[in-house]
Design a protein that fits this description.
Structural class of chain A: alpha+beta
Radius of gyration of chain B: 21 Å
CATH superfamily of the largest domain in chain A: MetI-like
Distance between the termini of chain B: 17 Å
Shape of chain B: globular
Number of strands of chain A: 4
Strand order of the largest sheet of chain A: 1-2-3-4
Strand order of the largest sheet of chain B: 6-7-8-3-9-10-12-11
Oligomer: heterodimer
Largest sheet of chain B: 8 strands, mixed
CATH class of the largest domain in chain A: Mainly Alpha
Number of helices of chain A: 13
Strand content of chain B: 15-25%
Helix content of chain B: 25-40%
CATH topology of the largest domain in chain A: MetI-like fold
Shape of chain A: elongated
Order of helices and strands of chain B: EEEHEEHEHHHEHEHEEHHHEE
Bound molecules: adenosine-5'-triphosphate, iron/sulfur cluster, magnesium ion
Distance between the termini of chain A: 35 Å
Number of domains of chain A: 2
Helix content of chain A: 55-70%
Radius of gyration of chain A: 27 Å
Order of helices and strands of chain A: HHHHEEEEHHHHHHHHH
CATH architecture of the largest domain in chain A: Orthogonal Bundle
Largest interface: A-B, 27 and 37 residues
Structural class of chain B: alpha/beta
Strand content of chain A: 5-15%
Number of helices of chain B: 10
């Protein structure tokens, strides 16, 4: 700028140039639950989406002979009552002759120290950097022994590892699906609110049609239409698109309503009077005015997406093995047999609940911060 | 002051509006059936000469805003003609009359460089999410005339010209007072060097103490940038000082238009007379009774028959109830729509 701005005192700087978003940020920071939600979400996405390879001790498909082993306890005190560095006991297979069941028993003669940053299965960090360091584990070369923080499944795979990797697909589908919903919903909402007429009519009736339809059968019909022979990634993206396709209606309606009220604001008219194109008026002047609402709605509806994926996969209509998501894990867990004999498979539920909770905390915090009429 | 441009030769006509109408449909029910129309603007005719100010006066709700917005097609008029002497649309740079209502989209966008608008509400007419710099730059950006450096200089100059400081550029509208915001709106209106500015009650939302300042600023700018104004106001006292000519509106129609001088001293329409009687007089000894109009302003959705003013007019005769008076030039440059304009002796100030 050719302007020589006068030097400003710190206090003055604070009071001027405060845009709407500065204010929002200021108010959001004061909301403890919202901030906690944001931090937890970053942690969730960081560990489940970015770093599951590092955090989990094994590779996703690493099988072992330890079929349906219960969670391994990490101990500090040994059988003689002595304090030692963290270790686990070895596992030994026993057959219960009466019940004709395979059980696992501790072999207190074998002890394996648990270490941080041990070498193990190879992987590529962020899909790029080859590495074999895992956050924790037992030294691999000692024997066949494994550490199963949350038990193992019917193929002897570490369940903790599977939950970590499953989170990646489930959390990403929520985000990707919501992103698509956002693009579709806001664009159609803005166009429908701004132009009215035939476009508006179509969008309105279509969203009504979608919302009048019972959701689960519609989901089922659409997902059943995905060909079985499609590669897993294609199925994944198709499912994302289906979720977004069913979700945009509500958002479009809300955006449309907001645009209807903003459209008559004089600054939109002013832009038009200077020759601004419809495009410019819609996306430069009107859409930003709806952004705060859109962000809140989007944040609060991501959990719905994640749950929808989980529900569909659980019904066997969403993701299918070899893809691993919280939904497919839940499918394994939700049988009478599993609940009776391998209850640790239900450990997939807490992360799902935690995700939903944190999104709601963040969403509520954002709503309070973005709402111009709330308590200030 | 009023009438300054009246000395000597009169300017060319810059804007001429003929029989402009804007009806808003009244819709009802699920199927949005049209059950009637609000005749917000119902036959407005007026003209503005180069370099002059035409005051457009009328009570609240008589259609002034709708008329000015219809002129630049912020609302699509129902009928009429809006002739404008445009430079940008003529191939040889010689100003040429075009009918704005017949222009296609692209041509209309071009003409918008020459006609700017200042809005009544200084809060709502500035986008709260844009900085002052962005707001003033927007007309230039829209027309592809924004160049880094040069345009920024223009913006700073404009800002200073309207009485704001360069360090205001990075601020947002909500940090300013009403008067300052209106100045931002004025700077934006001047960004493209327009020739006609439509001012829709630019001062009526401001404190009385700031109104005079803002009016003076507008007058100075008119001289400096060779602007013509269509200046909308809801009472005659505001436009008295700044208008060369005045048009009076009643329920969607212009009922009288004349030089300020002639209109104030020698009105030809009973409605103008009634409005004038309400204008505060500078001389306290000058006694005049205020004419109290009976009844309410007519409803533009359901106007009276004949002359719209007849239920309130104290000179009404039978003919007024059935026959609408034509808008005619009774004396040179003095237009009026009243059956009895010739015979009545009305009081001015
Ligand atoms: N978009 C619209 N739809 C329907 N009716 C409208 C619309 N805009 C204005 N009107 C009606 O048209 C009439 C004229 O309104 P307008 O705003 O032009 O009056 P005005 O003279 O500018 O009044 P004011 O002095 O209060 O600004 C009013 O009766 C108003 O209710
Ligand atoms: S036409 Fe009749 S009613 Fe209308 S203003 Fe003239 S005298 Fe009054
Ligand atoms: Mg108005």
């Amino acid at each position: 700028m050719a302007v020589a701005a006068a030097p400003l005192t710190q206090a003055k700087k604070k009071e001027i140039g405060q845009s709407y978003w500065d204010l929002v940020w200021y108010r959001f920071k004061k909301n403890r639950l919202g901030v906690l939600g944001a931090i937890l979400l970053i942690a969730l996405y960081g560990s489940f989406v970015a770093l599951p390879e590092v955090i989990s001790p094994y590779a996703l498909e690493n099988r072992s002979n330890f079929v349906e082993a219960p969670p391994t306890a990490i101990r500090l005190i040994d059988e003689k009552g002595q304090l030692r560095a963290p270790f686990i006991y070895g596992l030994e297979r026993k057959i219960d002759p009466v019940r004709r069941l395979r059980t696992w028993e501790l072999d207190t003669d074998r002890k394996y120290p648990v270490r941080l940053f041990v070498q193990g299965d190879e992987y590529k960090l962020f899909g790029l950097i080859p590495m074999n360091i895992h956050l924790f584990g037992i030294e691999a070369d000692q024997s066949e022994q494994r550490i199963f923080l949350l038990g193992s499944d019917a193929l002897g795979r570490d369940y903790f590892t599977r939950i970590m990797y499953g989170g990646r697909l489930s959390l990403m589908i929520g985000l990707l699906g919501q992103f698509l919903t956002l693009v579709l919903g806001t664009t159609l909402g803005v166009i429908s609110g701004y132009y009215g007429g035939a476009v508006d009519m179509f969008v309105q009736r279509f969203t009504e049609f979608l919302s009048a339809f019972p959701n689960i059968p519609l989901f089922m019909a659409l997902s059943a239409a995905i060909p079985v022979f499609w590669p897993p990634t294609a199925v994944y993206f198709m499912l994302t698109i289906i979720l977004a396709f069913l979700g945009w209606g509500g958002l479009a309606r809300q955006v449309r309503g907001l645009i209807l009220s903003l459209r008559e604001r004089e600054y939109a008219l002013a832009a038009k009077s200077f020759g601004a194109s419809d495009w410019r008026i819609m996306f430069r002047h009107l859409l930003p005015g709806t952004m705060s609402h859109v962000i809140v709605i989007a944040t609060l509806s991501i959990p719905g997406m994640i749950l929808a994926e989980t529900a569909l996969s659980w019904l066997g209509l969403g993701l299918r093995p070899p893809l691993t998501s919280w939904g497919t894990l839940l499918q394994d867990a939700a049988t009478i047999r599993a609940i009776r004999f391998t209850p640790w498979l239900l450990w997939v539920v807490p992360p799902i609940l935690l995700t939903i909770l944190t999104y709601n905390m963040l969403g509520d915090g954002l709503r309070d911060a973005l709402d111009p009429y709330s308590g200030r | 002051m009023a009438g300054t441009s009246q000395n000597g030769k009169k300017g060319d006509i810059l804007l001429q509006v003929n029989g402009l109408k804007k009806y808003f449909p009244i819709q009802k029910g699920l199927l949005r059936r049209v059950i009637g129309y609000v005749k917000a603007v119902d036959d407005v005719s007026l003209y503005v000469r180069e370099g002059e100010t035409l005051g457009l006066v009328g009570e609240s709700g008589c259609g002034k805003t709708t008329a000015s917005r219809s002129i630049i097609r912020l609302y699509e008029p129902t009928a009429g003609q809006v002739l404008f002497r445009s430079r940008v649309l003529s191939p040889d740079g010689q100003p040429r009359m075009v009918n704005l209502l017949e222009l296609n989209r692209e041509q209309m966008t071009k003409v918008r460089q020459e006609i700017a608008m200042i809005f009544q509400d200084p809060i709502n007419s500035l986008n709260p999410r844009m900085t002052v710099a962005d707001i003033i730059a927007e007309p230039m950006v829209i027309h592809g005339k924004y160049e880094k450096g040069r345009s920024e200089e223009i913006i700073v100059n404009l800002l200073q010209r309207v009485g704001l400081r360069p360090d205001h550029l990075r601020r947002y509208p909500h940090e300013f007072s009403g008067g300052q915001r209106q100045r931002i709106g004025i700077a934006r209106a001047l960004a493209l060097n327009p020739r006609l500015v439509l001012c829709d009650e630019p001062v009526s939302a401001l404190d009385v103490s700031i109104q005079a300042q803002t009016l003076n600023l507008l007058q100075d700018l008119q001289q400096e940038f060779k602007l013509s104004y269509l200046f909308v106001a809801h009472d005659l006292s505001v436009v008295q000082h700044i208008s060369d000519r005045v048009a009076v509106m009643y329920v969607g129609k212009v009922v009288e238009m004349a030089d300020s001088e002639a209109l104030y001293t020698n009105p030809l329409h009973p409605y103008t007379e009634a409005l004038l009687s309400a204008v505060p007089k500078p001389d306290p000894l000058y006694k005049s009774e205020r004419i109290i109009m009976q009844g309410d302003v007519a409803d533009p959705a359901n106007p009276p028959s004949g002359c719209y003013f007849h239920p309130r007019c104290r000179y009404a005769i039978d003919r007024c109830k059935t026959e609408a008076p034509a808008f005619r030039e009774l004396k040179p440059d003095h237009w009026v729509a009243c059956h009895r304009a010739e015979e009545l002796q009305l009081r001015g100030i």
